Each structure stands twice: as C-alpha cells, then as structure tokens.
Structure of DNA ligase (ATP):
Amino acid sequence: MHWVKPVLVVEVAYLTWTEDNLLRQVSYQAQREDKPARQVVRAIPHPPRRSP
C-alpha cells in the first residue's frame, strides 16, 4: 500500500459505491479550490423519504 498526501480536491459524479468501497462509473465534474483536502469526508446518503 502506498499512501499519498492529498493536495487537490475535485468534485465527481458517480453511480454508486461498490461492496468493496469503490466508486462505480465515476466522472470528473470540477476542481474545488474553495475547500482544503483535509476537510473532505465521505458523505453518507440519507434514505429517500417515503410518501404517506
């Protein structure tokens, strides 16, 4: 395993996370210069609301 120092932050779109914690069908959207790499965390999606 080779660890790297995060320098750049980019925004991506993706279909889903795999069971191996990899992103599926990723596409680059933009480079983010407004957010330092240290502040980036994996977002936890909220389940969709159910209609009554």
